[in-house]
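Hi all, posting the design record for the shared folder.

TITLE: backbone redesign
STEP: 1 of 1
STRUCTURE INPUT:
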C-alpha cells in the first residue's frame, strides 16, 4: 500500500506554464535592467563608480584598501555588468520561447536547461556580484546614497523563485515519479 495520492503520479500540467511565465518575467526584468543601463548609461555608471570607490562608506581604514578608484577598471566592471545582463536576458528569452515550443511538442527538457542557465546568470549577478562583492567586499551597505542591496535582493528573490519552480517535479511535463 502506498501513502501517495493517486494524482501524485500524473503530470502537473500547470507547472510548465508557471515555469514559462516566471522565466519570461525574469527575462523581461533583466532585459529592462540592461536596456536602462545602456540608454541611461551615466546614471548607473555613477552608481558603479561610487560603490567601487567606496567614497560614500564609513571610510574605515581597515576596509578602504579594497576601494577600486581607477576609472578604467570601474568602466570595465560596468561594461561587464551590462554585457552579463544582456546575455542573461537573451538566454532567458530563448528559455521562454522554448517553454512555448515544448508545450506544442510535449517536451520541456531543453526549456528547463536554457532557463536554468539564464536564471543562474541572474542569481550570480545579483547574489555574488551585488550582494556579496558590492554589498560586503565594497561595503555598499554603508552607503546611504549608493546602496543597491534592496534592488539586488528583489532581483535575486524573483530569479530564485523562478529557478525553484523550473525544477519542481512535473515542471518538465513528466510525472513526478518519472523525474
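Okay, here is what came back for every position:
SEQUENCE:
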Amino acid at each position: 500500500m502506498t501513502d501517495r495520492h493517486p494524482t501524485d503520479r500524473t503530470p502537473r500540467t500547470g507547472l510548465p506554464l508557471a515555469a514559462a511565465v516566471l522565466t519570461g518575467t525574469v527575462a523581461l526584468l533583466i532585459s529592462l535592467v540592461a536596456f536602462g543601463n545602456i540608454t541611461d548609461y551615466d546614471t548607473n555608471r555613477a552608481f558603479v563608480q561610487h560603490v567601487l570607490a567606496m567614497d560614500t562608506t564609513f571610510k574605515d581604514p581597515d576596509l578602504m584598501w579594497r576601494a577600486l578608484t581607477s576609472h578604467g577598471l570601474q568602466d570595465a566592471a560596468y561594461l561587464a555588468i551590462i554585457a552579463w545582463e544582456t546575455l542573461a536576458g537573451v538566454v532567458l528569452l530563448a528559455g521562454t520561447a522554448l517553454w512555448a515550443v515544448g508545450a506544442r511538442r510535449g517536451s520541456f527538457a531543453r526549456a528547463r536547461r536554457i532557463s536554468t542557465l539564464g536564471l543562474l546568470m541572474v542569481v550570480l549577478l545579483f547574489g555574488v556580484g551585488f550582494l556579496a562583492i558590492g554589498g560586503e567586499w565594497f561595503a555598499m551597505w554603508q552607503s546611504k546614497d549608493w546602496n543597491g542591496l534592496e534592488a539586488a535582493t528583489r532581483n535575486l528573490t524573483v530569479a530564485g523563485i523562478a529557478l525553484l519552480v523550473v525544477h519542481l517535479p512535473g515542471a518538465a511535463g513528466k510525472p513526478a515519479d518519472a523525474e
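COMMENT: Helices lie at 14-39, 41-53, 71-105, 109-137, 149-166.
Let me know if anyone wants the other runs.
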